[in-house]
Amino acid sequence: MAALLGSLLAGTPPATLGLHDGVLAPCPDRPNCVSSRATDARHAIAPLAYQGPADAAWRRLVAAIAATPGARVVRDDGRYLHAEFASATLGFVDDVELVLDAPARVIHVRSAARLGRYDFGVNRARIEALRSSLNTTEPQ
Known about the structure:
Oligomer: single chain
Strand content: 25-35%
Order of helices and strands: HEEEEHEEEEH
Helix content: 25-40%
Distance between the termini: 43 Å
Number of domains: 1
């Protein structure tokens, strides 16, 4: 029974995941998503700026995600990453996507809840935590 409940709360990955003409999908019209490509205040968040080599920044982010309880990297090709973050209590899953823009020295982000309408700021806080990890972790 617990496994069934867990799979229901996890939801299914949205069909909009991945790059579409080189960019991430826009946020849906719900307040449970943030994106560095969004232009409205409710969804907008700055991309992750980095110093040093792009590959070192990417490795720092991947390591930060791997060290996060409940996180699982689903796909990582060195330019695009999709990770799932499951909440500790009920197992709700959020999808985080990262896209490297090496010429601009930023990593674009999108973090969205699969289910529900509100996330109580969890997705925004997650991206800010990744930003902090990127800027405080030594290159590997």
